[in-house]
Each structure stands twice: as structure tokens, then as C-alpha cells.
Amino acid sequence: QVQLVESGGGLVQPGGSLRLSCAASGFTLDNYAIGWFRQAPGKEREGVSCISSSEGSTYYADSVKGRFTISRDNAKNTVYLQMNSLKPEDTAVYYCATSPPRPMMLLRLWVQKAGKPDFGSWGQGTQVTVSS
């Protein structure tokens, strides 16, 4: 069964850190680019970051640039999102999703368009709450 599972969310104070994980089962993640997306209550889903399948090139939305770091460990079949200097506006459900290998320009567009086109493999999400 092909599955993505996010974990690592929780409640953290402003300025704190969390590391989210996106683990794959049933398929090999290193054949795919991975994106992280988030959706806050009452808001549209937005793209956060992505990492390419081959060179590990990365892209970040302006709202998280300099605070979040995406990485992948192909041996563990897992992609991570290290989130530092968290702000209340980072509160959302965070999802990971796969994309077939594509040029970085198209991956950036994929994130900017909040994961559209939808390639079909999404996790169930993990809640991140930033609050004092």
C-alpha cells in the first residue's frame, strides 16, 4: 500500500522549533520530489517548500525562507521539515505530497500553486500549533 505519513507536529511557543517528518511506505521516496504544504483554519492551502528528487535542490515560500529547512534521507525513505523561529501564523495542518521528477522551475510553481496539479499522493497531515 502506497502511503505517506507525516509526524512531528505539536504545540510550541513562539520562537520555538519543531521537525516534521514525512515517511513513505510502499514506494521509494528518492524517485519523487516532495513538497510540504499547510492549511490554517478557514484559509486556503498554501505551499511551504519542496525538494527535488535528484540533486536535492530546494525551494521555500517567502513566508518561511530563512526559518524552515527541508531535507531528505533516502536511506530512511523520509523527508524532513525543520522549522525554527516559529510564529503564531505558522499554525496549520502540515501535509507532504509527492511529485514526479520535474525541473525545479515547475516544482517551484507546484508549491506556489499549493500543490496543483495534484499528483495524488498526500499524507494525512500533522497539526502544528504555535501559541504562548
Structural account:
This protein has 132 residues and is mostly beta strands. Helices cover 7% and strands 43% of the residues. The protein is built from one helix and ten strands. It has one helix at 104-112, and strands at 3-7, 10-12, 18-25, 33-39, 46-51, 58-60, 68-73, 78-83, 92-99, 126-130. The strands form two sheets. It has a six-stranded mixed beta sheet with strand order 2-10-9-4-5-6, with helices on one face. The chain has a four-stranded antiparallel beta sheet with strand order 1-3-8-7, with no helix packed on it.
List the helices and strands and how they pair.
Layout: E1 3-7, E2 10-12, E3 18-25, E4 33-39, E5 46-51, E6 58-60, E7 68-73, E8 78-83, E9 92-99, H1 104-112, E10 126-130
Parallel strand pairs: 2-10
Antiparallel strand pairs: 1-3, 3-8, 4-5, 4-9, 5-6, 7-8, 9-10
- Which strand order does the major sheet show? 2-10-9-4-5-6
Largest sheet: 6 strands, mixed
* β-strand number: 10
Number of helices: 1
Q: How would you state the average pLDDT, rounded?
A: 94
As a percent range, the share of strand residues is: 35-45%
Uncertain runs are none
Shape: globular
Termini, distance in Å? Answer: 39 Å
**Percentage of helical residues?**
under 10%
Using only C-alpha atoms, the radius of gyration works out to 14 Å
Derived from helix and strand composition plus strand pairing, the structural class reads: mainly beta
Which H/E pattern describes the elements? Answer: EEEEEEEEEHE
